[in-house]
Amino acid sequence: MDLDLSESEVAFRDEARAWLAANVPAEPLPSMDTAEGWRLHQEWEARLAADRWSVVSWPRDYHGREASLVEWVIFEEEYYRAGAPGRVSQNGIFLLAPIIFEHGTKEQQDRYLPSMATGEKVWAQCWSEPEAGSDLASLKSTARRDDARGGWVLNGQKTWSSRATYAHWGFGLFRSDPEAARHHGLTYFLFPMDADGITVRPIAQLDGEAGFAEVFFDEVFVPDADVLGAPGDGWRVAMSTAGNERGLSLRSPGRFCAAVDRLVELYRERPDTRVSDRVVDAWLKAEAYRLYTWGTVTRLADGGEMGAAGSVNKVWWSELDIALHETALDLLGPEAEVESRWLDGYTFALSGPIYAGTNEIQRNIIAERILGLPREPKGAQR
Amino acid sequence: MRFELTDEQRAFGEALDGLLSAADTAAVARAWADGDTGPGLKLWARLADQGLTVLATEATAVEVCIAFEALGRHAVPGPWVESAAYLPIALGHEVEGVATVAAPPRVPYALDADVADTVYLAGPDGLAEAEVGEQRASVDRARRLFAPAVEVGGAPSLETSGDSAFDLAALATAAQLLGLGERVLADTVTYAKQRRQFGREIGSYQAIKHQLADVRIALDFARPLVYGAALSLAEPVETTPRAVSAAKVMCADAAYLASRTGLQVHGAIGYTQEFDLSIWITKIRALVTAWGTPAFHRARILDSLVGA
């Protein structure tokens, strides 16, 4: 048992640190949910990709450097410590790509992954529907078989689609077999957001920015080549995405450790003993998350699976994110309401316990799959 | 980078668990509380045979934590932290037989001094053998507390200056709390699967599920802090005391959450002395403030983070 980095891991860390020090923009980029900010974030992705830093764990053929899981965690820590921009390509590289690697054909991998790695094509997720939120399996958007054209025709409505306002491609689940119940008869589709019949209506979020959108599908044709996994197998395919979103890949500890370092710095500038225990607790939770992640990485490297532990992870980081930003705002006192990086971080953190499966759903998963408690009888189901 | 117990370490923990599972430790703790320390001392001898009293001097803090997690899980009574963590480091050698120590102000009482072969008092000038006064009752009936007969002049400056004996004792207490919390969660889950109200198992209601999920989460994130601090103690650096305090605070919080939730889910039966849950719940309450209160350890973390 140890927490030591090998020589090659130290070399990797030093190389990443040096590159980031030389390349991270001095001033924060404008929000990625504005037209100008979107363009600048795309440019940043291209810069990362040019030196193989955008998707370090991917194969070299797709702009990666085949980094190990340990190296990925190291990179993330360095990335956030350096104050580098948020990842506009996050939905694609962290949520969709692992599924394309696992379920996609070689042709699909060659077609989707390179432009995802360079940020040229940014992906939006289309999961929720107006009547299918936590109960995602009740979704009603349909896929109708079109043998003549060799594909499917999508109809329906998706909502809360992150990045859909400006994204180039989308991914989501549609009901391809109307007779099958709930989790069955769903198919995983990939589609260009400018396809005929797709209408995107941006939704202003709490902070006024159009970070998500409604997406309407009216007779949208998708060729068989853009079906991910087998038709009817979409739930199983999608749930491996959900595991990724909840677990390691979306929220590396580096983000929180860097934010807590800034919180401690803020406390030094504005010491307030009434808030000090909460500063300590934010540090404690980030430190616990950092060490917990090394345990997860060790188990995954040994061939273990994330499984329901992803839900434990998700509740922790999402609540930590809010707590540490609330603490910062309390230190700022009456200035807390004034526009600041802390306020932006706080507003963003508020969405954490809701997206990627609400924390209530996560606690159900923990109780049923980890603790083995009986499933709750569900209400009437179609 | 391998942040997991080795197969050997895992096997050591499992062997201890096996031994303690077969030892009816709840009955041992009850006897100890009632003044019959015979079964507890017999168990002490068996555990000493397994090497528990030499881990601090001959193994690493990781093995110490594995052992104390098992002692916590089974609510084993006796001055284990004193004999197997604090004193071996403070004395520089293993303890023969049973010994205990008071280290005011953090540790005002010598635990189980009446069964100890030697009672020490830790002061600014180091350790000295000491007499003790009358027994004081603890919230944990199996903790027999004795105040030193003499006052110690001046607080020991040990805790902030990297006193490795105090740090190992605090970490062993954290590991014990982890084991206590895990046991309360496991027993409460078992109960929630059996107990039926309104026609179904109470564990099928979200009101129960979500509370138990929160305990699972708290314990899962406390554990890596214990082993992170243990690795740090093996090769101490400036931040080692902070790592120990982190483990103690998080394990105390997690175990205390387990105890509150465990009591609430059990309902009235959990509030009885007769039901074994009481042994674990009261021990958790006692250990939350033992070897440094949460406030003390949080203050130590803050000092380290912002510079005292």
Automatic annotation (TrEMBL), chain A:
Gene3D superfamilies: Acyl-CoA dehydrogenase/oxidase, N-terminal domain (1.10.540.10), Butyryl-CoA Dehydrogenase, subunit A, domain 2 (2.40.110.10), Butyryl-CoA Dehydrogenase, subunit A, domain 3 (1.20.140.10). Its cofactor is FAD. Residues 232-371 form the Acyl-CoA dehydrogenase/oxidase C-terminal domain. The keyword Iron-sulfur does not apply. Residues 124-220 form the Acyl-CoA oxidase/dehydrogenase middle domain. The keyword Nucleotide-binding does not apply. InterPro entries: Acyl-CoA_Oxase/DH_mid-dom (IPR006091), Acyl-CoA_Oxase/DH_mid-dom_sf (IPR046373), AcylCo_DH-like_C (IPR036250), AcylCo_DH/oxidase_C (IPR009075), AcylCoA_DH/ox_N (IPR013786), AcylCoA_DH/ox_N_sf (IPR037069), AcylCoA_DH/oxidase_NM_dom_sf (IPR009100), Mycobact_Acyl-CoA_DH (IPR052161). One of its GO terms (cellular component) is plasma membrane. Keywords: FAD, Flavoprotein, Oxidoreductase. It holds the Pfam family Acyl-CoA_dh_M. One of its GO terms (molecular function) is flavin adenine dinucleotide binding. Residues 6-120 form the Acyl-CoA dehydrogenase/oxidase N-terminal domain. Belongs to the acyl-CoA dehydrogenase family. This is Acyl-CoA dehydrogenase. It comes from Nocardioides antri.
UniProtKB/TrEMBL annotation, chain B:
Keywords: FAD, Flavoprotein, Oxidoreductase. It comes from the Bacteria. The keyword rRNA-binding does not apply. Residues 165-304 form the Acyl-CoA dehydrogenase/oxidase C-terminal domain. It holds the Pfam family Acyl-CoA_dh_1. Its cofactor is FAD. GO terms for molecular function: acyl-CoA dehydrogenase activity; flavin adenine dinucleotide binding. Belongs to the acyl-CoA dehydrogenase family. This is Acyl-CoA dehydrogenase.
